[in-house]
């Protein structure tokens, strides 16, 4: 199988051009290639496929083989791949995902894509649609007990479920211990991605993320979007915010008139290769 290793601010995936390649068992393949000791090493597998309704289709799998609906960092790399490898010559493209069609604007420098702006769509705040079990219609700054401690959660779906909580210190958080407690909490029937955020000022938030199926990653695009939305809902920031993640920064803008969230960030190709399956 021919592949390309790419990352969006450290959130790395193995990408396969399914305009040319066929992946028979993507769940098993995702587990194999993601292993950082015996495989290629990645947060998961992303297949780039033809689409009847868009310029291309993104099909993503987490490191444990489970399928995800959407990946913000991943879709930027999909856009870069499609342009850099000649699938499209357009600088405004559409990509089909399990959470709908996303629209992307490409910044091209010296013939290669250097940055991508993604219309991530509307945030979903209704608890039942996230899904999050709650007696209230929305979960905004609600107290929830996790592992014997009370946390205040704001829940948002950006095509996949997120729980955002605010902490004083993200750097020394024992995320390996507490992350799985959130991921498998009975409040979240489909599991959840958890963002531990600290507000620096009205335009800047720093964040670490525990992703369902992958553990801590250096960055999560949908998580950054969810954190920006949660920060606005809680009155912490303005509508446009820089989210600082372990792998780098993402610029997020929630256009509340359109009710669309826009994410801008880099996309990087690491190397091309082949692997025997």
UniProtKB/TrEMBL annotation:
The keyword Ribonucleoprotein belongs to this UniProt entry's keyword annotation: no
GO cellular component, one term: cytosol
Entry's EC annotation: 5.1.1.7
Major enzyme class: isomerase
PROSITE patterns found in the cross-reference section: DAP_EPIMERASE
Binding site for substrate: 11, 62, 72-73, 160, 193, 211-212, 221-222
Involved pathway(s): Amino-acid biosynthesis; L-lysine biosynthesis via DAP pathway; DL-2,6-diaminopimelate from LL-2,6-diaminopimelate: step 1/1
Domain of life: Bacteria
Signal peptide, first to last residue: none
Catalytic-site annotation from UniProt: 71, 71 (proton donor), 220 (proton acceptor)
Gene Ontology biological process terms from the UniProt entry: lysine biosynthetic process via diaminopimelate
Gene Ontology molecular functions: diaminopimelate epimerase activity
Main location as per UniProt: cytoplasm
Keyword Amino-acid biosynthesis part of the UniProt annotation: yes
InterPro entries given in the database record: DAP_epimerase_AS, DAP_epimerase_DapF
Catalytic reaction list: (2S,6S)-2,6-diaminopimelate = meso-2,6-diaminopimelate
SUPFAM superfamilies associated with the record: Diaminopimelate epimerase-like (SSF54506)
Site feature (Could be important to modulate the pK values of the two catalytic cysteine residues) residues: 162, 211
Localization of this protein: Cytoplasm
Subunit: Homodimer.
Function: Catalyzes the stereoinversion of LL-2,6-diaminopimelate (L,L-DAP) to meso-diaminopimelate (meso-DAP), a precursor of L-lysine and an essential component of the bacterial peptidoglycan.
Family designation: Belongs to the diaminopimelate epimerase family.
Name of the featured protein: Diaminopimelate epimerase
Organism from which the protein derives: Marvinbryantia formatexigens DSM 14469
Originating gene: dapF
């Amino acid at each position: 199988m021919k592949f390309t290793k790419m990352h969006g601010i450290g959130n790395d995936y193995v990408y396969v051009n399914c305009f040319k390649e066929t992946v028979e068992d993507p769940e098993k393949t995702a587990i194999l290639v993601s292993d950082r000791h015996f495989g290629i090493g990645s947060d998961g597998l992303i297949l780039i496929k033809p689409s009847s309704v868009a310029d291309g289709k993104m099909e993503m799998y987490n490191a444990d083989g489970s399928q995800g609906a959407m990946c913000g960092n991943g879709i930027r790399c999909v856009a870069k791949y499609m342009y850099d490898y000649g699938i499209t010559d357009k600088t405004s493209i559409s990509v089909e995902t399990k959470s709908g069609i996303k629209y992307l604007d490409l910044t091209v420098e010296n013939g290669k894509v250097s940055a991508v702006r993604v219309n991530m769509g509307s945030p979903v705040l209704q608890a039942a649609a996230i899904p999050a079990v709650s007696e209230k219609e929305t979960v905004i700054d609600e107290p929830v007990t996790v592992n014997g401690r009370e946390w205040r959660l704001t829940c948002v779906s950006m095509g996949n479920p997120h729980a955002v909580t605010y902490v004083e210190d993200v750097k020394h958080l024992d995320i390996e211990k507490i992350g799985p407690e959130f991921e498998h909490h009975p409040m979240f029937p489909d599991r959840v991605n958890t963002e531990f955020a600290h507000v620096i000022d009205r335009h800047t938030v720093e964040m670490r993320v525990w992703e369902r199926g992958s553990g801590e990653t250096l960055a999560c695009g949908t998580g950054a979007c969810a954190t920006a939305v949660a920060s606005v809902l809680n009155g912490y920031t303005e509508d446009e915010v820089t989210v600082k993640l372990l792998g780098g920064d993402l610029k997020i803008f929630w256009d509340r008139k359109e009710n669309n969230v826009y994410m801008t960030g880099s996309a990087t190709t690491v190397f091309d290769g082949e692997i025997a399956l």
